[in-house]
Amino acid sequence: MAKGRRSKRRRCPASSLTNDLVVEILSRLPARSVCRFKCVSATWRDLISHPVHRMKLPQTLAGFFTMHDGEMCSVPHFTNVSGTGPPLVSHSLDFLPIHKRTFLLDSCNSLLLYICSPTLCRTDCHYFVCNPTTEEWAALPDSNQGHKRRASCLGFDPAMSPHFYVYEFFQDYLVNGVEVYSSETGERVHREDNDIIPFDYRRSNVFLNGCLHYLVYDNPTIAVLDTQGKLRMSIPVPNNEDYGFIQLSQGRLHYANFEADDEDQVARLVVYVLDDYENQQWRLKHMAEASYVLLGQTCHNLARTFEWVAIHPDCNMIFYTVGWDKTLVSYDIDRRQVQVICTLGEDTREKYFPYVPLFSELQALHR
């Protein structure tokens, strides 16, 4: 070897990073990207899978909470996204000060909204927001609109704020209204305005850009309410069929529905993504034959034999139920693949609550 010429091995800059620093970097990435990085090397796989590190990293969809008929005084069920194995998330409510006669109203990202009624009286209701992963919770102050209350939902985006909002819609013979509770201020904002569009708890809703988005009943639009209860805008949806569904996936608002053919028969599943939020521009993302998606079942009575469950927050996958026994099904948009997950049972109530674990402690909650 000539003098001065030596074989040098290039050193990878990443090799000088400590494990704690790598985990800190990974914690700022989407959950889907973190999962992919498990394939980089055995070292990264072990690093990401380590129980202590996993608590710091972004999580993905773990499964779904469900309520069942006749269980007003019971706890919800939890079904893993795989449909198998013991529940990945505890569905016990023993950590709440009142955990009997409870009803799950809504989920948003990693938090759940419960209403508890010890006496089963409509005016004796107490709201709790909790994180079942950490068993932290917060009790909401009583509202003076309990006798008018029609529907409630939860808003929470841990990427924007550690605080949550609870929207309570009410209605009487003269006026529509909404109260919004903020965990940051501990107070409610009360607004009465007939421009406020009533919220139907059976329809889907999304908390995005600090606002509640929900599908309007009998109107092909999405209402957008800020945390002061003001109607910011209405977003028209691409079609006017009865089975519309909105979810947040990969950071964007998605809208799924079924379209009819020229003979007014349900013919295909369509999925749109809101590419341009400010200008309200939708793009058709996917289309599939309805009969294939529905496992060959008839499309004539979707209202009785089909229910939306979720659109995966990190990938192109839709979850729904088909049939009287509520068979949980996933549809992989990229692979155009339908997979039966499990049977939930015909007594499963029509609203489903997707859940993404959050291991971080929140200032707004306590034990």
UniProtKB/TrEMBL annotation:
Q: Which Pfam families match?
A: F-box, FBA_3
Under the heading InterPro entries, the entry gives:
At3g26010-like (IPR055290), F-box-assoc_dom_typ3 (IPR013187), F-box-assoc_interact_dom (IPR017451), F-box-like_dom_sf (IPR036047), F-box_dom (IPR001810)
Q: Which CDD domains does the entry mention?
A: F-box_AtFBW1-like
Q: Where is the F-box domain?
A: 17-57
Q: What PANTHER family does UniProt report for this protein, alphabetically? A: F-BOX DOMAIN-CONTAINING PROTEIN, F-BOX PROTEIN INTERACTION DOMAIN PROTEIN-RELATED
Name the chain's protein: F-box domain-containing protein
Q: Which organism is it from?
A: Lolium multiflorum
Q: What is the lineage of its organism?
A: Eukaryota, Viridiplantae, Streptophyta, Embryophyta, Tracheophyta
